[in-house]
Write a structure and sequence with these properties.
Structural class: alpha+beta
Largest sheet: 8 strands, antiparallel
Strand content: 5-15%
Helix content: 40-55%
Number of helices: 22
Oligomer: single chain
Strand order of the largest sheet: 3-11-8-13-7-6-4-5
Radius of gyration: 26 Å
Distance between the termini: 33 Å
Amino acid sequence: MMLLEEDEYPILLLQCAISLINYCTVEQLQHIPTELFGKFSLLLKRLWGQAYERRLCSSSSRSDQKNEFCISNIRTNNLVECIFRLSINGGLHQQTVDSEHVKRSIFDSGEVDVERFLLDIWETSPMLIRNPPKASLKQDGIFGPFIQYLGSKEAIPSFLTSILKHTISCPSISSDEIDISHVINEIKNHIGHPIIYHQDIRVVKTRSRERELHYFQEQCDLGIDEILKCEEAFNEGYSIALRGLEFRYQSIAAIADGLASLFGQPSAGVNMYLTPANSQGLARHSDDHCVFVCQIIGVKRWKVFPRPDFQLPRLYEPCDSRHDLEDTSRKSDGSECQEFLLKEGDVLYIPRGSPHEAITDVNAGFSLHLTLAVEIEPPFEWEGFIQIALYCWGNKQKDIQDTAGDSVLYNLCLLSVRLLHIAIKLIGNKNPEFRKACLVGSKLLCSDAGDRFYNNRKTTFDCLFNKITNESKFSDAVEYLEAALQKNEDPLEHIRWMKHLNVEEEKSSSSNITLADLLIQHRDIAEATFMEVKSKICSEVEFQNVERYYQVMLEKYKKVRKQYTNGMLSLHSALHNEHELTSSYNT
């Protein structure tokens, strides 16, 4: 590195290269020669690793100048953005842990196979999957590389400080974002920072199974002083909860990718929970996503309670408060609470919305478990699939607009389609079937059980359309539309994500008002048109046609999440010996 310190000319060239790359489009970056790309990325990662160590150990990490940490005149933020940009497409076509490997690791030792699990257990009830051989924890198992990286089963885990020192913040991205360029613009001033309390990590314990106590009271960057205090907190009974392991370790990212494919979702998340003996980390709570709790080290006792509401919670909707959860459990007779003891290698499935809590025994040592989270985003629920079906039908009607002749009738048909979008939402608010994951993109469809599972999906699709035929009401949809417009709200906000299917994006706010005026002028025939359109949609829509549109949406969501993951993995690989995990897995 002496050349960079003494010779200004190479530094100037490096500055120019970084600036050019940061101004490139994603498409332009793909034209960089592979050999040049590899060598340049390696250089940038070496610089970034040095800069991060300086930032982490410096008090200036808590000053207003934290973005100005630089090597010569190269700002760290620009350096980090450049590494991220160069990495986003690097792993899109690389082989990962396939869904079949993940399926075998979780389900093969259980009493219920994956097909029966998806049809009878999924999103309905908890299930313990015993794994006496501990196959997933062995060196060639899915968690083997990560366990080898940890390399400690001591009473005080020696890996804790090392993990936290080599972990940076992973800012969240919008749930319906599918353009990585927009993502980069949103996060470029935040990537490369030390981990942030609450966002990336929590250090917490629960007293008397009711009150959560946080070791750090405010949202803050964790510098080296705070990281060292985490070990002290662990000795005082606090649990360490680290989010987003799929962005930090290649082997964990591969597991998350395989799990997401198995359940037909764009991505899956992985969190780590390290709990000392005789302690409870999080208080009783419920999640807005399904989890597979994988016990890696030690043992832990779990209690899972019945879901307090028949309706499945949606992502990012507020879950029931702890007070409500406690009231619900008091009302039950105790028999409804299920208790599980997880040993190393065991997996516990907990459906979204089911309250749960966990505690370690007095003499059992510490516990380390990972939660694999399957998040069901709105487009990939059954309601989303039905909304896409409606979009498909409506799109066909646009093709015949020129031959229709009657513009009023055409606009009334368009109004009816929008009212049906609203009516489906209203039915879904009351019917839990609409909120379930449709699993149409599941890799199970490619297995021996694929035909049976496909037929089951198609039957569910037909049943839901029968419900729409019988339960959707013109008056309810109109009332919702008028109330939203009076509040100056978009009545179709709940399907904003559908713009990603649109070839020609519409200005929905103005067209909604135009259609509302049409409703006022022709209300006498609007309801009859609504009933006719509903009847035609329910009789004409075909599962196979909808499936094609659905797969397009799924791939768009997958791509941007994979690109974001690639960028974060590249930044983390410069901070720890990530090549040891990938090489051990490949062997």
